[in-house]
Amino acid sequence: MKTNNLFKKFLTYSYGSFIGLLIGFLTTMVSTRLLNPTEFGKSSIFVLVINILMILVIIGTDQTFMRFYYEEKEDKRGGLLYNVIKIPLLLSLLFSILILCFYKEISEVLFGEINIQLILILIIGYFSQFILRFGNVVIRMNQRGNLFSIIEVLKRLLQLILLIIMYFVFGASYKIVVYSTVLTFFILSIISILLEKKFWSLNGLKITNLKHNKFEIVRYSYPLAITVLITWLFQSFDQMAIRQWSSFEELGLYSAAFKIIALLTVVQVAFSTFWTPVCYEKFENNYNDKHFFTLTTSVVSLFMFSVSIVVIMLKDYIVLLLGADFYDASKIIPYLVFIPLMYTISETTVMGINFYKKPKWHVLIALLSLGVSVILNIILVPNYGGVGAAIGTAISHIIFFTLRTLISLKYYKVDYKLNKIFTMIVLVFSYALLSLDDSIQHITLGMIILFLNIIIYRKDIIKVYKKNISRSLTNS
User: Fold this and answer.
1) Which helix (H) or strand (E) holds 217?
2) φ, ψ for residue 437, nearest 5 deg
3) Do 373 and 439 fall within a single domain?
4) Per the structure, how many domains does the chain have?
5) Are residues 208 and 309 in the same domain?
6) What's the mean pLDDT when you consider all of the chain?
7) pLDDT tens-digit readout, 218-271
8) Could you tell me where the beta strands, DSSP code E, fall in 150-195?
9) Is 204 inside any structural domain?
10) Does some domain include residue 388?
11) Does residue 30 sit in the same domain as residue 165?
């Protein structure tokens, strides 16, 4: 695949995410001005639970669908989808029954009140998000990048519009986030199916003689299911630790900082969305072209380190957009940048595990990363609150990246230039620790580290890029 065509394909997947980035940032600014940190903390718990339930329902079947997609004949890929989706449908029904049986206890823990209406909204929310997830996966694997970007823009725009409408209904209450979030998922889940209705249609569906039967789907998915359960704790323990050993106000500040960083995860999601089908296709067509993976890792590392450094440099100014009540969130932001930073780079270095269908390694990786996160949060949160949780999260994500990369190299050896990556990790983490000092001094330090990042990667990227140009000219 030529470099210019690859870049154009990436743009079709990513422009919607970047437009959504701007709308999402505006939504965060609006919500932190409508809600105080305590109400914002309550809303973050609801959103966290929806995401957790969606992850528990899907249990890795979306990854199974993507892995087997290109191995099935085109006319049988709809059958693959229906075979895969049966498992989360069954689990969704089971979780809904359990939640309704214990709705009083769940409602009291989440909202501090018994409210069956909010519990029903919770169920609708995670079910809609699960359907939307598969709707987006179908669009991704069909490589309809423009359509994916349009849905991303619509998602962010709907959230903003509905948030404002709900404010006039419920006032300055966490419920405005609850209802706007669930309605967005519900509307977009329907739209995503309608846009690919031929793929979802039962008419002429071929579910027999598939290359991958139900047993193979379950066999590939169950290690991912265990991984998902562990990953849930890995991604959520910081907020649970704050809820346990601190207050809703501290959780609100942490969640506000997380919202800022979540905007960076738009970049992560955009890249992963584009990268997953491209790398599998590349491996199937020419698994020896390892320069392709070296180039991708170098470009992604340069970009993500640069963005992370800039965010730390401007943290004191970015946080002003949240409002005066959330200024202390600036102390948390520098460490949370390691979530999208480490995860995005690891998406390019983990592929050896996925190419050779070794999902059980993901269990060990998630378990070890979780262990680090739990230990650090238990030690740091009681004394340092949100900042302690953020430091623990940063270190655990560095461990996560390291394990993913080293184990991947056992199966698919690629020169990822790890010496450069780890050099930049040390520099950026040190910068995060020092960024609490005077703003002018830390901005100057940030500019120096940004310059070093460019110097470290410039020659490598130019060298690999020239090799690709030379190869393209030779083949033409």
Assistant:
1) helix 214-245
2) -75, -170
3) yes
4) 2
5) no
6) 83
7) 777 777 777 777 877 887 788 888 877 877 778 878 888 887 887 777 677 777
8) none
9) yes
10) yes
11) yes
Burial-class residue 234 by CB neighbours within 10 Å (0-12, 13-18, 19+): buried
Distance CA 60, CA 63 (A): 5
Expressed as residue numbers, the domain containing 52 is: 1-212
- One domain, residues 409 and 460: yes
Pairwise CA distance, residues 169 & 164, whole Å: 9
Sorted by sequence, the CB contacts under 8 Å of residue 280 that are 6+ apart come out as 66, 67, 69, 70, 354, 355
**Residues 6 or more apart whose Cβ sits within 8 Å of residue 22:** none
- Residue 389: Cβ within 10 Å count: 30
The distance in angstroms from the start CA to the end CA of the chain is 12
pLDDT in tens, 83-132: 888 888 999 999 999 999 999 988 887 777 788 888 999 999 999 999 99
**Which H helix or E strand runs over 2?**
none
Helices 175-195 + 145-170 axis angle, to 10: 150
Enclosing H/E stretch for 59: none
Sign of CA dihedral 277, 281, 284, 289: negative
Rounded Cα distance between 32 and 326, Å, is: 8
- 153, 7: one domain: yes
Q: Where a domain ends, among 188, 212, 236?
A: 212
Q: Is the pLDDT of residue 309 over 70?
A: yes
**Dihedrals φ, ψ of 340, to 5°?**
-70, -30
Same domain, 149 and 248: no
- One-character DSSP codes across 96-152: HHHHHHTHHHHHHHHHSS--HHHHHHHHHHHHHHHHHHHHHHHHHHTT-HHHHHHHH
Would residue 263 count as lying in a domain?
A: yes
Q: Which residue has the higher pLDDT, 284 or 353?
A: 353
Write down the pLDDT at residue 476: 46
340 and 196 in one domain? no
Q: What is the DSSP letter of 254?
A: H
Structural domain contains residue 217 = no
Of 154, 178, 212, the position where a domain reaches its end is 212
Which residue shows structure tokens 């890795």? 60
Residues 339 and 410 occupy one common structural domain: yes
CA neighbor of 457 nearest in space, from 309, 299, 337: 299
Residue type, position 115, single letter:
N
Of 39, 352, 304, 62, nearest in space to 173 by CA: 39
What local confidence, expressed as pLDDT, does residue 291 receive? 79
The string of pLDDT tens digits covering residues 52-67 is: 888 888 877 888 888 7
Strand, helix or coil for residue 372:
helix
- In this structure, the number of other CB atoms found within 10 A of the CB of residue 129 comes to 23
Contact predicate 461/295, CB 8 Å: yes
